[in-house]
Amino acid sequence: MNDLDIARKVTLKPISEIAQRTGIPLDSIEPYGKYKAKLPISLINKEKASKANLILVSAISPTPAGEGKTTMSIGLTEGLNRLGKKTTVVLREPSLGPVFGIKGGATGGGYSQVLPMEDINLHFTGDFAAIEKAHNLLSALIDNNIQSKTNSLNLDPRTISWKRVVDMNDRSLRHIIVGLGGTGSGIPRETGFDITAASEIMAILCLAENLSDLKKRLGNIFIGYTFDKSPIYARDLKAEGAMTALLKDAIQPNLVQTIEGNAAIIHGGPFANIAQGTNSVIATRMGMTFSDYVVTEAGFGFDLGAEKFFDIKCQSAGLSPKAVVLTTTVRALKYHGGAPLSDLKTTNTEALLKGIPNLEKHVENIKQFNVSPVISINRFLSDADEEIEIIKNTAKKLGVQVAIANVWEKGGEGALDLAEKVIAIAEKTTSDFTPMYQWKSSVTDKIETIATKIYGAKHVDYSAQAKRDLKKISDLGLDHLAICIAKTQKSLSDNPKLLGRPKDFIITVREIEIAAGAGFLVPITGNIMRMPGLPTHPSSENIDIDENGVISGLF
């Protein structure tokens, strides 16, 4: 039985019942049909939110298919609720790129899902479409201003860094020429498309405190320079008002439900290898307002999403997590020990032992933030008992709690041991969360701190372009911004072929993009791209719909 079959066995509760059980006033929700609703920002109570326990779910460096962080987050939420802890899971919205690409949907799996999974994985409440439209409105305004003879800012087209976005994996759009077709069709220039999850507006929406903050951040988007070298921002085009108007509903988080009928808030969807990889500050605070516990996840391995969750989101919003659940799988550790992807179901303790240093490094990284980790083993049917014992012995050696979480097969029941260990840490351990760096430090110090302490690099090299970017950042007075490194998720290094726990490697920063509205800089390393491509056999080949409107293959 697949995820979709399991989801369709569930009788969904009306969204009003989910809101009522969570303590959300019924007259405040804005229903989108029977099973989805928008939640007004005005419901957030920061004082109440400050008393909730925030739990982050992360993972070791993943295989291409991922290690089940979302499934683990949902299962843990179900387990905590079963133990009498009022808990909400707060997640990111899926991007259509992975849904139709290689990873498939992003609503969990088995008996640890958020529902209605078809709606959430496809258009949901239209948030991604609104972000895309706001982003591309600014793109259109930029090209219109270049073309104008009476309302021109004298923009130099060669310096414009703002691209367009679309929520699809489409490698053909990475580099394009716009403005062809004669004098009435604009000024020809080179540009391109990023995937919507990589849009700065996505990052801004997920870090904004409210509509006013959103509007201010949108106005701070850096566009490029005039011919006389003056910087131009979105506010110079008077773009922020219309862009904010397009986002007035998208900024409100979405309420849905878990497979066991508990509250789930889903909002925003930045990728962790090219953006901050976490849901919105607003959604997290909303969950913390109405819950004793909030379980959330950050994309890819701890070195990517979780580092950015701590150093960008937590510093920006003043959040202090109580514990980190480190999702671990036997298959990923064997992969990092040299076992081929095609052979990960075969028992191989030798490869597993060789891959263990990857787990050890992620545990070390969690402890560097002064937050307590719990290793959660996402067990698969092919995992041998002796393989599981190796992970348990490693946890004992590291002095870290460990639990087997069979959440795909058993839902909340399969997470009870994990939930008990999380409660013990959250309620009996004093959290002393400490960021990895202070934003006021120099740009190079911040980059090198992440690269050496989190990735384990020997040092950082900067290309000629990156050095020019550093000077531009300094000239613009943006040295104080946070750092959001774009890096492969396949390795702790910037080389996807260096598996396990590589050492003595060099991180190479090839360029640094400015996301002044979001409040961070994006050093781009290795061959990372902000517009993915589809695989040879994309997931879309398996998705279909019958004459009754029943979708198949969406999991």
SSE arrangement:
Layout: H1 3-8, H2 15-22, E1 30-31, E2 37-38, H3 46-49, E3 53-59, H4 69-82, E4 87-91, H5 96-100, E5 108-109, E6 112-115, H6 117-121, H7 127-147, E7 164-166, E8 176-178, E9 189-191, E10 193-195, H8 200-207, H9 211-219, E11 222-225, E12 231-233, H10 240-246, E13 254-258, E14 263-266, H11 281-289, E15 293-297, H12 302-317, E16 323-328, H13 330-336, H14 349-368, E17 372-378, H15 385-398, E18 401-405, H16 407-410, H17 416-428, H18 443-455, E19 459-462, H19 464-475, E20 482-483, E21 506-515, E22 520-525, E23 544-545, E24 551-552
Parallel strand pairs: 3-15, 3-16, 4-14, 4-15, 7-10, 16-17, 17-18, 19-21, 20-22
Antiparallel strand pairs: 1-2, 2-13, 5-6, 6-13, 8-9, 11-12, 13-14, 21-22, 23-24
Helix pairs in contact: 4-17, 7-8, 7-10, 9-10, 13-14, 14-15
Note down, in words, how this protein is organized.
This protein has about 550 residues and is an alpha/beta fold. Helices cover about 35% and strands about 20% of the residues. The chain has 19 helices and 24 strands. The strands form six sheets. Strands 1, 2, 3, 4, 5, 6, 13, 14, 15, 16, 17 and 18 form a twelve-stranded mixed beta sheet that branches. A four-stranded mixed beta sheet has the order 19-21-22-20, sandwiched between helices. Helix 4 crosses helix 17. The longest helix is centred in the N-terminal third of the chain and has 21 residues. The protein is globular and about 70 Å long. The termini are close together. The mean pLDDT is about 95.
